[in-house]
Q: What sequence folds into this?
């Protein structure tokens, strides 16, 4: 593959070994494990191992949609189907489900103000000014880390602090994403899944 194909991979995948990067490109082209093994001249077991490494990395960084077409659901929906990809195996669905359960549990561990700011920002897709207007109209003071949210800069700072705390709780909760999930990747996940009301 060309250098450009490798350069376009997500940062977390570019940190993996070169064979894993190549497998990611093959997966984006929807190739089977057998075909990947044949084209890369590696054993099928090695191809499967590399596929698993790539899948875990992409799930952890919120980029799984690069190799699959997942079905996104709200985190709090009861009885909702786990995210699934067209043709994805049971293990992928289990990993995605495990990650979403850990995310829900980690969100629940946040302070009410932290959950509220994330819900308004990611769940309701409100802008910083909209959050401030909502806070003023509802006479509800939002505090994150003991600091009141009064300006748009405070909103963005509060969102970043809450995300960092959520990331810490999430990596303690599950090994999926440990060492590869970033605040940016977590933002992408929350943009796609939303956040329940506090």
A:
């Amino acid at each position: 593959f060309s250098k450009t194909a490798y350069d376009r991979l997500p940062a977390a995948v570019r940190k993996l070994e070169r064979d894993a990067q190549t497998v990611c490109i093959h997966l984006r082209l929807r190739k089977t494990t057998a075909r990947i093994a044949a084209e890369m001249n590696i054993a099928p077991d090695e191809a499967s191992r590399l596929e698993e490494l790539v899948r875990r990395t992409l799930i952890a960084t919120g980029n799984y949609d690069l190799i699959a077409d997942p079905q996104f659901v709200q985190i709090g929906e009861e009885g909702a189907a786990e995210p699934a990809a067209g043709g994805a195996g049971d293990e992928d669905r289990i990993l995605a489900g495990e990650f979403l359960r850990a995310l829900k549990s980690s969100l629940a561990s946040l302070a009410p103000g932290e959950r509220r700011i994330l819900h308004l920002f990611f769940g309701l897709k409100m802008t910083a000014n909209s959050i401030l207007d909502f806070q003023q109209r509802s006479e509800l003071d939002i505090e994150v880390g003991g600091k009141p949210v009064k300006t748009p800069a405070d909103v963005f700072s509060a969102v970043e602090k809450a995300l960092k705390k959520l990331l810490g709780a999430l990596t303690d909760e599950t090994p999926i994403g440990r060492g590869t999930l970033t605040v940016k990747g977590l933002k992408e996940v929350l943009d796609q899944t939303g956040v329940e009301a506090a």
